[in-house]
Amino acid sequence: MLREIFVTLLLAGLVFCAVATAVSRRLMRTVIIFMAYSLIMSVVWLLLEAPDLGITEAAVGAGVTGILFYLALRRIHQFDRDAANQEERVRSDNENGSAKEE
Amino acid sequence: MFTSLTDLWAHMAENYIVVVSIILFGVGFTTLLFSRNLLKKVVGLNIMDTGVYLLLVSMGFIDGRHAPIIADGITDAANYINPIPSGLVLTGIVVSVSVTAIMLSLVVRLYEKYHSLNLDVIYELRNKEDHT
Amino acid sequence: MRRSFQQKLSAWYRGKYDFTLKTADPLQARWKHEYTGKEHKIREMERRELAFSGVLYNILCVLFCLIFIGVLLIAVAFLPAHGSPDNPAVNEVMERYVEEGMDETGAVNTVAGMILDYRAFDTLGESFVLFTAVCAVTILMKNTKKRAPDGTPVPMAVKPGIVEYSKDNIVKTVSRFLIPFIFVFGVYVLLNGHLSPGGGFSGGAILGGALILYAMVYGEDRAAAVFSERLIKTVVLSSLSFYALAKSYSFFTGANHLPSIISTGTPGRILSAGLILPLNVAVGFVVCCTMYSFYMYFRRGRIQ
Fold first, then answer.
1. Which of A51, A72, A74 sits opposite C162 (nearest CB)?
2. Which of A76, C41, C64, C156 is buried most, with the most CB atoms less than 10 Å from its CB?
3. Within the 28-87 window of chain B, which residues sit less than 8 Å (CB to CB) from chain C?
């Protein structure tokens, strides 16, 4: 009974993470949510009594696939572009913030 | 067959893992089809893969039995779940990571040539290249 | 005037306190307005393509997704109930694998016994898929263009602002303690494939992860000095050939297997289960070198 509740919660988390990767606009955020998705999936494998799959998914899904996505992002500089957009937004936020304070 | 809609709902509620795996497959497929960014398409394909694996492993689960590692020398098949789907999905996970690596290297190469991750823009640039 | 808690929270959420986002050069942040000619045209095209989509497009996407899921959900009505022992997948094959598995293969872990003894061809095919993936990534990502006049390859330039893990003190200190433990754990998981959950793929992936962490933190040159291209090629090719030779005799003997020279031993000890332990080690080596090569090719275009 408790096990089923736990599995249901984890599966709800899975669906939430999957929809969040589909909807998010920034690529770095997508990659990190994907790694979290893979981690939740690894625990679901354990609850479905497949421990080999749990270890493999944790090492391969969250570890290696996440790193490959990160390296691809690094190489295509999208990472940098996100940082530049963020920096612009923060700078304008600072200017607005200091204008309000004065 | 099912006599009424409530029967159908009850069956789906009992098979909730299969329902979630179908939802994941649908979300992944939609991301693959409709997102503009090539990297998001790769992420969508990965999510589709994991949805299928969830379906396969849930077919091997039997209530009240344990993982197929033989403990205390008891080899009675009524104590363990079905090991076959688990073995097939183990192969699938590793193949999925290989396919992701190849797709990501293709994406990186495409970006280095066309400086864009948007597939429509790449098509336009290639059409221009072909015509000139 | 002091900022309220709400303002500080929203500023944190938007990244004001995040040190990794500060670029070294303040002018670097404005580069998106300084595109050179060709890239400016491409960004204009992208903006035009993005402006094409609106709310209607998003609604149509969601509608398509829901219809697709609805059509597939009809199939759930025909599937057996979850977890029932009357599942048609529970047949005599599963009973044979579980009941006679330990006697015939000697492996306590039924899944490992199945994938490396009863169904060893599938695992061989999968190792070949990994090898093909490394070949494809090599062809696509190998950096053959940039060479200095005397033939040594030129390192890839790094844009300022991207975090370099080899200069970060926290990561370096923590990995100094963690990497040996990850290696030992990987070797343990690899060798215990037939006794407990684990095996070639998990152990190989953990070992590959340890190698990637070492290369990331201590610099790729130091890692490349130990794991040269020749060593990795030798390890991968010899492991694959060993596996292929050990299990492809069935092409010539039909479906009968030869009685194996290596006896299965007492189940529960490490040196048991016939050929499963060497095959696990071979698969683990292939997976480890594959993960490490992916990292090196993505990072700098050569293993060396």
1. A74
2. A76
3. 29-30, 33-34, 36, 58-63, 67-70, 75-77, 80, 82-87
Report CA-CA distances (Å) from A70 to A28, A38, A65, B43, C156. Answer: 8, 15, 9, 12, 17
Domain that holds residue C224: 92-155+163-250+265-300
Query: What residue type is A80 in one-letter code?
Result: D
* Whether C280 contacts C116, CB under 8 Å: yes
Cβ density class C166-178: b for 16+ within 10 Å, e for less: eeeeebeeebeee
Asked if residue C181 and residue C74 are part of one domain, the reply reads no
Copy the structure tokens of residue C190.
């690899």
Q: Domain count for chain C, please give it.
A: 2
Tell me the DSSP string of B21-41. Answer: HHHHHHHHHHHHHH-SBHHHH
Are residue C175 and residue C289 in the same domain, yes or no?
yes
Nearest by Cα to C265 from C100, C107, C96, C99: C107
Domains of chain B plus CATH, in order, are 5-131 (1.10.287.3510)
A19 interaction partners in chain B (CB closer than 8 Å): 27
Number of Cβ atoms within 10 Å of the Cβ of B82: 27
- ipTM for the complex? 0.90
Name the amino acid, one letter, at B10: A
Look at residue C255 and tell me if it is in a domain.
no
Give me the tens of pLDDT residue by residue for chain B, a chain 132 residues long.
566 788 888 888 888 999 999 999 999 999 998 888 889 999 999 999 999 999 999 998 988 888 888 887 777 878 889 999 999 999 999 999 999 999 999 999 888 888 788 888 888 888 888 887
Residue C254 backbone zone (phi > 0: left; psi -120 to 50: alpha; other: beta): left
Q: What is the pTM of this model?
A: 0.86
